[in-house]
Structure formats: C-alpha cells, structure tokens
Specification:
Elements: E1 2-3, H1 5-8, E2 14-15, E3 18-26, E4 32-38, E5 42-46, E6 54-61, H2 62-67
Antiparallel strand pairs: 1-2, 3-4, 3-6, 4-5
C-alpha cells in the first residue's frame, strides 16, 4: 500500500505491505471507520470511537487472498463490444 505522509506522519510517501482492511460501523450512532493494518503500522480513517459498540467487516486480508481459488469465467462475450468487468461476491 502506498501511504501518504498525512497518514503515516513521515515526511515522504512510504510503500508498506498491506495486511488487512477492516470496516467498522457504529451500532447506536451514525459513525464509521476504516482500519488499515500494514507491515509498518495501523492507520484509522473515520470518526467512530472503536471502544463503542460496533459491527465490523473485513474488506481485505492476506488470508482471503491466499485462500481464494482463481477460476476462469464461462461466459461467452462479444469481443467487438466494449464492456466493464467487476468481481461480485
């Protein structure tokens, strides 16, 4: 993950290995936060006080990537048409 100085507190951009991204949403309040864990540190973006009651969802983790089995799509497409592709869970 390329981390800007405003996030890391350093004077230059730094390249760190991304470990996980977790999204937290407050249960009783309308606040949220995203936690980025990297090889160099843990960074929080958002207003949610993590001591409060919350729900969480892992958006990315090394374990998810390692356990994923790549597969090819069986859909036939018309190559003359332009299309956008995305992954869906």
């Amino acid at each position: 993950m390329l981390c800007p100085p405003a996030l890391t507190g350093r004077s230059v951009w730094s390249l760190e290995e991304l470990v996980e991204i977790i999204f937290f949403n407050g249960v009783d309040i309308d606040e949220s936060a995203v936690i980025y864990r990297t090889s160099g540190g843990t960074y929080k973006l958002g207003d949610l006080d993590l001591r409060r009651k919350k729900t969480s969802r892992a958006w990315f983790s090394e374990a998810q990537v390692r356990s994923r089995l790549p597969r090819t799509s069986d859909r036939a497409i018309e190559l003359s048409e332009q299309r956008l592709y995305s992954a869906r869970r």
